[in-house]
Amino acid sequence: MNRPTTLELLAPARDAEIGIEAVNHGADAVYIGGPGFGARASAGNPVAEIERLVRHAHRFGAKIFVTLNTILRDDELAPAARMVRDVYEAGVDALIVQDMGLMELDLPPIEIHASTQCDIRTLDKARFLAASGFSQLVLARELTLPQIQEIAQALPDTVIEFFIHGALCVAYSGQCYVSHAQTGRSANRGDCSQACRLPWTVTDTQGRIVAHEKHVLSMKDNNQSANLGALIDAGVRSFKIEGRYKDMGYVKNITAHYRRLLDEELAQRPALRAASSGRTTFSFTPDPQRNFNRGATDYFVNGRQIDIGAFDTPKHAGMPLGHVLKLAKDHLEVQLDDGVGEPNNGDSITWFDLQGELAGVQVNTVEPIDAAAGRWKLVPKEPLATLKDLRRDTLLSRNRDMAWDRVLRKNSAERRIALDLQLSETPEGFALDLVDADGHAARATVAHAHQPAEHAERAETALRDGLAKLGTTIFEARSVRLALSQPWFLPASTLNTLRRDAVAALEAVREQARQASRPRRRPAQQPPVPYPEDTLSYLANVYNHQAHDFYVRHGVQVVGAAYESHQELGDASLMITKHCVRFSLSLCPKQAKGVTGVQGTVRAEPLTIQHGDEILTLQFDCKPCEMHVVGRMQRSVVNKARQMRQADGAPVRFYRQRP
């Protein structure tokens, strides 16, 4: 079977309004949290709002996916199933899932996608999920192009999805328990405390400080702009933007950026097409650097890179602005860099203090000293004396540009579907035939006398112009043909009614075609295919008995309970990651190969990281080139869990060890 021939740009939405703008800015699909059970705990949406988004998206043939990608307790399965039925009836096209217990429930025939939380980094895992009823798989962000290609080639009838932009979790998705161990807030249940963004002091086995107060677990942001063509060639068909917590401006800008890039790729690949309809035009120039970002990395797509970490700060430093010329009592004078846009009232500026920490302040007012020469007076919102290490020649960046924000607060995109119109005469009057760019056709007629026009040329122009006035519809005229025996007079009101009726008929035809092709859940292979392993530990995130039964049905003999069940009370791997602190600090034994006097003396011994009272051990598994962050659950978390169990019932328990 051949691979899918459509490319899908998949954008995030915190709410329906943002989702609508994602569609307007070129998204082929949008993923959004439902009323509950999503991996972003505070990004839920009522079903009525999701239905509003669905109606808008479906007009363009775009799809809506709802995230249900947390692990669920037994008592949450029935409410989750009701939510699935509700969003299915609202027209949602697919469900993004982590918990295999859902696959055991009586769900409507909604298409099921495997969440990034499923940790899909091997061909065996991908094959298993495809055979178990998953139509679309989002692969681990840590995979290289050859690894992606291997999976795509082996599963030609499965849509391969890959993250192309946004924040990066340092752990393999679904394989991080640091937050739960330290605070009781589970990343697998949508409530991560983001310990990876904290500053940590790194020491070696002899207690020597290797790095002091560095954000050694904080990654730069993912940006695959330069790799889209290679990812397409490798078999990726859904290109996912991270960011269900992000604001409207981010979604508009990043969606528009990748819409342009994917359209450029499609122009070179006639065998492929966009997964939805319409052409999008923008009133601004997309620029990913203008949104919150921690710097950019393409991570492991092209192999291991040393510069993937945002070790200095997890914050947004912004774009270069200029440098300080001098400080006065209540303001600073700034020399802008060449080509930098003028500052604005309300901008925010940043700089690095003498300890390398990012500092910043909002600007109250700005005033040109010599605008032509790029010299400006900036009055900060806080007293200059309180701004740490801000001095002459300090390099400044701008991490909030009010002029840019104003652009994105306005209507900034228009999406239209090309339309061919033909007006012809009938015995009773006139007919208008429409054919859209997707080949859908509709006709409307009107009874009206055939009245010759007094001015033939003027009448013909009026008919063409009147037919092309598609106004606030989703269409734009690509061609207008008058198949008339002679120019007839047709009142503007009659022509408008005819056009509106034809457009309404065409939208109805489009909706009927969409409903007829609505994606349905892929049937699982029978008999059930065996899972690649016969023993599962807490790393499989099994948190309910339906998930346990799912794996047993697929041949697993030993199923460990999820870490959130509090049965792993000793030292455990709280994070598994492809990121290696030793490598990033140039302490990897492989880096020392061939270096005279160093080779053989650098070993992958454990390191310790500490933030406040929190102490974790970094252990290095050099064969797969992975790092484990090892620690144990805080006593306060265990005690709180015991209190909750006394109130709610027995903990989830399967097997502690192989019988």
From TrEMBL:
Residues 512-531 are annotated as: Disordered. Residues 398-510 form the Peptidase U32 collagenase domain. Pfam families: DUF3656, Peptidase_U32. It comes from the Bacteria. This is U32 family peptidase. It comes from Ideonella aquatica.
